[in-house]
Amino acid sequence: MKNTGKPGSKAPKIIRRAAHNVTRDEISKSALKVLYRLHKAGYQSFLVGGGVRDAMLELHPKDFDIATNATPDEVRSLFGNCRLIGRRFRLAHVRFGREIIEVATFRAAANHADDDSAHDTEGRIIRDNVYGTIDEDVWRRDFTCNALYYNIADFSIWDYVGGFEDVKRKRLVLIGDPEQRLREDPVRMLRAVRFAGKLGFTIDKSVVDAMRGHTNRLANVPAARLFDEFLKLFQTGFAKRTFDLLREHKLFGELFPATEEALSEDEEFVAFVHAALQNSDKRVAAGQSVTPMFLLGVFLWLPVKKLAAVRRAEEKMSESQSLSLASYEIVSQLQRRISVPKRFTVPMREMLALQPRFRTVRGKRAIKFLEHRRFRAAYDFMLLQSEVGQGDEVLAKFWTDVQTQSAEERAKSFQMQTGPGKKRRRRRRHKSMQES
To answer: What residues contact 330, with CB distance under 8 A and at least 6 apart?
Structure first.
């Protein structure tokens, strides 16, 4: 097969400049500087991975990774704006203002690096520190579409595993034996879904078949790494499509088990999550910021509400208190799967706990709510529920309107809500005093 074999066992197919559509216009000036300087210093210098793939697809790549036979120390000697990072494998980061160009030395294949590479009992690679040649490096990459090397020396593309044709056919194929590659790194299942969602690729049947037997291996992946994958899955503009693929391939429940259970039981919750994901994708497309805090709140909303109802039945507490307690418990359970930093979980809990306060539209407490530091996030969350028919549209309109009013108009709006209530309370107190 084209994508199997021993590392270094075959020569690459070289696609000459006239036979492909990758141009230097699609490569950032910073990346070109690094490529040319390495080449002029006598080293092999290739743009590799997603940058080549996206350039072929005319997607205007934003990330540019470079592979070379220069060691990290040799790269650092060529660039004063370079620093070395990483323990598992040393990388060179060359900084140009805010842009960082990552330069990696060719790696040797894991199954041929007996002295410096190790696997855990599940077959997952946990140490990988061996330098190699380009013929070996290609076998360490995951998908054929990510194993294309653009040679700055003559602008050709080197293809060892049939990735050039797979990109043209929009097909995701794992390099090597799918079963072994997923055991080595179960995160490759998430990457397959992410690329399929982003690029509109079809996941090859051999990969789909292998994924069925390995979804539970995500439990062996460090929780901090899964949070990084969560950001890539849901913060890059293809969240809705990616979410549906994760559920289709039984992966979403490995990340959010409580959410998956709620989704399987409640179609309205599915609609709410879909609306949130579509909104997130629109914001990314418009160049607006997105925060994982909001989407985490969406994913956990129904599990939190259900647990909050149980806690209120067990102990007397307000709805806000029960939501806060329930969200703390649900997040604690989630942390065993995905290590979410407190800078996201704390505001998320506040956002959920504030939802009952939107029903208070009278008096100073309602006015002060507008000044709460989490008001905007809580309002967006409430508004989203209203838009999908799962919230009070009258309340949503009221809180939308008061935000655009002047201070005088706003006070009048709240006074219109509070006046009759105050008069009734005064009459009741006066009557009670007379009766006593």
So the answer is: 258, 300, 303, 304, 307
| Structure tokens, 70 | 């220069």
d(CA 209, CA 212): 6
| Residues designated as active site | 63, 65, 142
Q: What is the pLDDT of residues 326-356, one digit of tens each?
A: 999 999 999 999 999 999 999 999 999 999 9
Q: Which runs of consecutive H residues, i.e. helices, occur in 315-374?
A: 319-334, 342-353, 363-369
Which tens digits make up the pLDDT trace of 260-317?
Answer: 999 999 999 999 999 999 999 999 999 999 999 999 999 999 999 999 999 999 998 9
List all residues 6 or more positions away from 230 whose beta carbon is below 8 Å from its beta carbon: 255, 292, 338
184 CB contacts (<8 Å, ≥6 apart)? Answer: 110, 119, 123, 124, 125
The two tokens of residue 182 are: 């997923």
Long-range contacts of 165-170 (CB under 8 A, 24+ apart): 167/53, 167/56, 167/57, 168/56, 170/199, 170/200, 170/201, 170/202
Round to whole Å and give the CA distance between 63 and 288: 19
**Amino acid symbol at 107:** R
Rg of the chain over all Cα atoms, to the nearest angstrom: 27
- Please, what are the domains in the chain? 13-185 (3.30.460.10), 292-423 (1.10.3090.10)
